[in-house]
Predict the 3D structure of the following.
Amino acid sequence: MTKILFVCHGNICRSPMAEFIMKDLVEKAGLSAQFHIASAATSTEEIWNGIGNPVYPPAKAKLAEHGIGCAGKRAVQLTPSDYGKYDYLIGMDSANIRNMRRMLGSDPEGKIHKLLSFAGSDRDISDPWYTGDFDATYRDVTEGCEALLRHLTEK
């Protein structure tokens, strides 16, 4: 089983979008049993008294436009033990990658990647919390997830 953890700053926009887009892609490919997919935050900004906030409503609405649900998802924070639990730890932008490396200590097994690197790009996925452009984020996350799935199935 391939275990993937998508990571962004707050775990309410980009990384849950990636989690549920990827779950949708693997389900449509008939590969759900071969994957464990989750998402987490580098910060605790969206976690209060141990309870994470749900997916940000515009991100949830963008997923729903494409028939993708995310019910029950709440923000959680990345932990050092996640390095041993996952095969791929995938950040949405350069700041996420920097924070992931800081939080995890190092990356001896080469598990940390930026999502769009699988699509041959060093581009960051812009944060729609600041841009308000959930269409662009959805397109970029989908492009990255499709490329990641190709990468994994062609291995």
In short: The first helix runs from residue 14 to 28.
